[in-house]
Amino acid sequence: MKISVVVYCNNNGENLEKFHVNLSSTVKLLKEDYEIIYINDGSDDDTLLALQVIANHSSHLKYISFTRHFGREGAICAGLEHAKGDIVILMDGSFVHPPNVILEMMDEYKKGHNHVVASKKLESSVLKKAKKGFLEKVIKKFVDPDLLQNESDFRLLSRKVVNAILSMPESNRYSKGIFNWIGYKIKTIEYEITSRIINKESEVKRLDAIKKSIEYILCFNTRPLRLLTKVGLLLIGISLVIFIMMSFKVLFVGIRIPGLYTISNFIMLFGGVQILMIGVLGEYLGKTYYETKRRPQYIVEDSSFDEE
């Protein structure tokens, strides 16, 4: 049995050697054939140089370096396409994902689980839990709740799971949704981070979290389009009620129709709703537009695979 560890790197050059030593020591404990594939996602620092130096001293290390920042989706795609192992483990090149957790993930695999996810334990902060819960409630209005589960990037995938993912040819990918969509049962384990080298560039920003939520909504369902239909019908109903009420006032009560202020407010209201609807439709149309281009998920600038 061969194990492939795919490591995502973005500006991790400073601590990469220490991370690799830690990871290699952990994987060796499994006493299985293994390879470690680093994906350099257009780093601005010396990540590529660090990988080249480490590769000269490690026969198990392979790397792929992109021409620019293609994002985590391109990196995952590259890693899965080049991994030759019967088991593929996805993780980050910082110490956000502790290498020692791989041992526990392998134990779960040996118990028969094809898909194992390692998630960090939630902090005890009541405020953070409330924010996370509120965001999930909002997103659940637009997507299948099952797609929101097991959102960690730290995963163990069997070859069957990897082949299922690679069989999906779309360009606009959202891997966390795909991992759940393929249907394999997921075993989740939790871990605590006791020591960590903080890398500010690898921290997930709030804006990125919002963007990922939007990707969830756009890539896996058409509920927003259905919502627009309901909103349109609701506004038509409200408009008819207002029209009937104003007509009765004019015909029977004699009150004149409100002036410019009321009319201008209604124009702004309905105009804003229409623009919002057009914007949502444009997002879906844009996804279709980019899908028809069939552009590659990534472009390789340098790779140790070229030497094979």
Shape: elongated
Number of domains: 2
**Low-confidence parts:** 195-205
How would a crystallographer describe the biggest sheet? Answer: 8 strands, mixed
Mean pLDDT: 79
Indicate the CATH architecture of the largest domain: Alpha-Beta Complex
Tell me the CATH topology of the largest domain.
Spore Coat Polysaccharide Biosynthesis Protein SpsA, Chain A
Which value, in Å, is the CA radius of gyration? 25 Å
The CATH class label of the largest domain is Alpha Beta
The H-level CATH homologous superfamily of the largest domain, spelled out, is Spore Coat Polysaccharide Biosynthesis Protein SpsA, Chain A
* E-strand count: 8
Q: What percentage of amino acids are in beta strands? A: 15-25%
**Termini Cα gap:** 21 Å
| H/E element order | EHEHEHEHEHEHHEHHHE
Number of helices: 10
Protein structure class: alpha/beta
Main sheet strand line-up: 7-5-6-4-1-2-3-8
Q: Assign a percent range to the helix content.
A: 40-55%
List the helices and strands and how they pair.
Blueprint: E1 2-9, H1 16-28, E2 33-40, H2 47-55, E3 61-66, H3 72-82, E4 87-92, H4 101-110, E5 115-120, H5 126-140, E6 155-158, H6 159-166, H7 175-181, E7 186-191, H8 206-220, H9 223-253, H10 260-293, E8 300-303
Parallel strand pairs: 1-2, 1-4, 2-3, 5-7
Antiparallel strand pairs: 3-8, 4-6, 5-6
Helix pairs in contact: 9-10
